Amino acid sequence: MTTAIAGPAGTTRERAHANRTAPRLKQSRAPYLFIAPFYVLYVLFMLVPVLVSLWLSLTEWVGLGTPHWVGLRNYRLLATDVSFHRALGNTGVFVMIAVFVVVPLALLIAQALNTRGLRVRDLWRTAYFVPIVVSPIIVALIFGLIFDRQFGLLNSVLRALFGTGGVDWLGDPGLAKVSIGLVMLWRWTGYLTVFFLAGLQAVPKELYEAAALDGAGRIRTFTTVTLPALKPVTAFVVVTSFIGAAQIFEEPYLLTGGGPSESTLSVTMFIYRAAFQRQQFGYAAAAAVVLFVLVFGLSQLFNRLLGIGRATS
Amino acid sequence: MSATTSATSIRASVRSSAGARTRRGLLYLTLVLLLLAFLAPLVWALSGSFKPRGDIFAYPPKLVPDPFTLHNYRALIEDQPFARWFVMSTVVAVVATVVSVFVCALAGYGFAKFRFAGKRLLFGVMFSSLSIPFAVILVPLFVILVKTGLGSPWFALIVPWVAPAFGIFMMQQYIVQSVPDSVLEAARIDGASEFGIFRRIVLPLLRPSLGALAVWTFLQSYNSFLWPLVLVSDSSQYTLPLGLQTLFVSEQRQYDLVMAGAVLAVLPAVALFVLLRKQLLEGLSTGAVKG
Amino acid sequence: MYTPPPLPRRTLLRGALGLGTAAALAACGRDSTTARTSGDVNLALWTHDPGYEAFFRKGVPEADGLTDFRYHLTVTRAGPADIVTKLLAQAVAGRGTPDMAGFEIGSFPRMLRGDISERLLHDFTPDIATVPGLKEDLLPARTAPYSKDGRVYALDSDTPMVVYYYRDDLFTEYGLAKDTPTWEEFAELGARVHKDHNASLCVVSTNGSDTAQIVQSFQMLLYQRGGAFFDADQKLVLDSAEAEEVLRFLCEGLRSGFVIDISDYYGAAMQTALKQGRVIGLPMAIWYKSYGLVPNVPEQKGKWRVRAMPRFAEGGGTTAALGGTGFGVIKDKANTRAATDFLLNTWLTHEGQVRRFIETGYLPTRRSVFEDRQLRGLKDDFCGGQRLFGLYRDLLPDVPPQHTSPDQSILFDVLAGNLLRAYRGDVSPRSALRRTAEEFRDQAGR
């Protein structure tokens, strides 16, 4: 039965094409039933709250009592808010780190873990995965200690190796971003590896055999067989990493509080800060709407580029 | 035999064994270095959980606790309602995971393998909900749930989250990649019902990705903080992150207990991962045979 | 330890509170909830600190004796900021608010935004007014942070004076005078100690995840020097000559080593610095002993001493206030009266305030309690048997009032960033303060 998925016909585009050419009108109710549970929950617990928030973004509300209608004032204020612009810029940096550093590294590790005859594969996989299950409070505690300027482990190591320490990992505006990036790397890489591994498992072995018969080398096999076959998974990991990083909250919130001088303030932190520290719910809602529009627009763009739209139509 | 096994065996036969050995050595070296980087912070936390509070941050750091103490664990379990937090979190996460994986696979399949009117729009709506920042819906959602009498933690910590767009998108991607139309066609010709096909053919084919999704859903629920924080007002229904947080507020930093709590809190998630590892690794070929 | 309370005061308080109950009943009449006036009552209490929980639990018999209620407590613990978040969320949803909640002083300003406090919190002013002498006895410095338009919405846990902690043994060993009168002379001493022994006499926090902590290091000396963040009208008055002087003092201290920057007053870095003798003295609030020193360096018991801070040569006082937690009662609930009675009869009685100091180390908020003979006789083991209460009493007149603003968290965010810049030498103290004021005005208007 392995032949069922065999052959070069197994590429995304062709399958999608096959889909299009196989209409089944008489079962037209079935797909709606399959997707119905999602939409029921979506309308109740997502759409309605979003509409409420959209309305809130046009008001001034301290979190209690009646919101006052202010029209587009919140949006006008956002347009000139330096903090918000900083938050957008910082979030852009975090997104870049997620998409261009964390994701490729996860793919490489997955590829390494997929090597034939690898010993104690489970050990590696489990070990790399563990960081993501650690409670964020502990993550902050641990990394606060590692990055400490005076007594941090990282600076101790640097001092022992190179004789110079005293690097202000969390206090220097530029380095603080790097430090957040390192924590992102630590938390997310092993976790994304799991998705790539699941994807690699699904690559038909016949494709590798064919490539080997063609005399393709390691790198060429990777680029001509593995990568194309992993395209849907990669698209999925990239898009979700993008969306996740665009809403990054825990790492900067717990480790740097968005500082120093807002150099690690993310948009979600900005929203949280406005709502839950400053009681400006209307303003927070407006910022959230802006974030939503940006993320939505960019992920649509990603979809076009990565061909997700084609696979689904 | 897994897919990669045969591929690399052919490749290996072409190459000199000496080069392969060097490469393998490098591979293991890299893996070990990565292992150290990933685990060192946790080993430190583990060792800290067995140290008296005054020793946790001793400088230079000591790896082996001396004196070794179980006091932190005892204090956590005896003096704090840790067991209750633990059960609450685990039960909520397990229920949410089981329901969610099923719902996501259903919808993912619907999107991946059917043509229907409004599909593009419906998919866009589903997908765009991924990019709705949680902070946006937090307050309205809370008010809606409470006003409609659905504010019980058992409902509100689980139900609104069992159909995440992330999971549906993920399932859709995997199904496009790994469920061949020909299998479905064959089943239809045999007269199987649509739901029957989903249950008996599609689900088994999806095993590795169901495992990955289960892990994701479990973690989402298990580690979530902001939502339970706003929702749960009765401390007898606190989840683990909420409970640990109470040990760690403002000036009262009970590092010792938090370390022990963190170590224990990791266990269910790691257990789930180890349990599902077979699923995660199982080749698709076996699934197809069963189907 | 616990002396029986003097009878007259008790009966006075009880009689007066009885009147308060009648007034509250009248007020609650139109509300759908029927106010409880006596008998068994289960109070829901939210607090971040297990110390308060223990205090109130122990206070139940006392409150039972002084009121018509028989109290039971259900306590929920959450982080200081989370208590406000949860309270507002529950209030919006119209369910499950507590009867009584502890607001950490840094989180309380959120309650001042809009009309949140008026809508949600019981105003204690009439209750205070009905007890003869209580209004005059309560320290205005500790009601100011929880007041708005002359109404008191929460009652503080502490008069958290700032004092100077130092390692007596090391001061002796290094030959340092223990009574240096001014900060300026002290700073010279500090520079020398740093050069000779790699130790510092003052600390500033650089804890990024907690802007309030960064601000605190500066705040203590600022208020001692006579500066302030906000005036009584909630107007920003930070950008002052005093503020500049204090910030310059800290920045120069960092260069000379007199001051050390530590990431967290309560965590790993501080513990290491204390253990290694890198920090042998620091100005901090009186509660720091129980939260910073005792848990982190229990082995240094007996080696620490407390003195009043050195003065600034140019002026100012001898102390400041830092921290505190105000307990408020949620209004228009069935238990509002019961909770108010409970709070007043545990938190504000003479014997309650004595007990609070003994059990939690928090100083009384009533002037008269500072004269208590029992408290003045207490010896502190951690500080080598020092009798500290006399010192606190002497400092009391100097405790400056602290006014907040609903925009305080905005100030803390921008101030923390600019303090760090100044500490690192990226900007001058002058421009750090000016930028803070500018950024604050920009953001607070939103």
TrEMBL record, chain A:
Predominant cellular place of this UniProt entry's protein:
membrane
Specify the protein's topology with respect to the membrane. Answer: Multi-pass membrane protein
Q: Quote a single Gene Ontology cellular component term.
A: plasma membrane
For this protein, the record's Pfam families field holds: BPD_transp_1 (PF00528)
Please list where the region (Disordered) is annotated. Answer: 1-22
**Which BP terms does GO give this entry?**
transmembrane transport
Q: Which UniProt keywords apply?
A: Cell membrane, Membrane, Transmembrane, Transmembrane helix, Transport
- Compartment list: Cell membrane
UniProt cross-references to InterPro entries, sorted A to Z: ABC_transporter_permease, MetI-like, MetI-like_sf
The answer to whether UniProt assigns keyword Manganese to this entry is no
Q: Which residues cross the membrane?
A: 32-56, 93-114, 126-147, 178-200, 281-302
Asked if the keyword Transferase belongs to this entry, the reply reads: no
Domain ABC transmembrane type-1, chain residue ranges per copy: 88-302
Read off the Gene3D superfamilies from this record: MetI-like
What family does this chain come from, according to its entry? Belongs to the binding-protein-dependent transport system permease family.
Q: What is this protein called?
A: Sugar ABC transporter permease
Species of provenance: Streptomyces liliifuscus
TrEMBL record, chain C:
Its domain of life?
Bacteria
Q: What is this protein called?
A: Extracellular solute-binding protein
Indicate the secretion signal residues. 1-26
Asked whether the UniProt record includes Signal among its keywords, one would answer yes
Q: Coiled coil: which residue ranges? A: none
InterPro entries (alphabetical): Bact_solute-bd_prot1, SBP, TAT_signal
| UniProt keyword Signal, yes or no | yes
Which UniProt keyword terms apply here? Answer: Signal
The organism encoding this protein is Streptomyces liliifuscus
